[in-house]
Design brief:
Elements (H helix, E strand, L loop, with lengths): L1 E11 L2 E10 L2 E8 L7 E4 L2 H13 L3 E3 L2 E3 L3 H14 L2
Antiparallel strand pairs: 1-2, 2-3, 3-4, 5-6
């Protein structure tokens, strides 16, 4: 299962951004940055295999309603949810 650690929040151009480290189990797989500019989250992967594994994990998550269309959770939403859930649990 995936988790995030080392979360640091900051004020960005369009709200609050974050830096965090993404882990698969106890293995560090990526550094992630949401710069709060309205663009996608940046992933700095340890290797391409890890990106593929996380993408597959995201496809296994429940679909959600986006303007009347059921869509898969993408990597940006998945990691942002992990960050928010981690912060909420503290």
């Amino acid at each position: 299962m995936y988790q995030v650690k080392n979360i640091k929040l900051f004020d960005g151009r369009e709200g609050t951004g974050f830096n965090a480290t993404l882990y698969r189990g106890n293995t560090k797989v990526a550094k992630v940055v949401d710069d709060a500019s309205g663009r996608e989250v940046s992933f700095n992967w340890i290797d391409n295999q890890e990106e593929s594994l996380f993408r597959t994990y995201c496809l296994s998550l429940p679909k959600w309603d986006c303007e009347g269309k059921m869509v898969h959770t993408n990597m940006d939403i998945a990691v942002t949810d992990l960050v928010n859930n981690t912060l909420d649990s503290k």
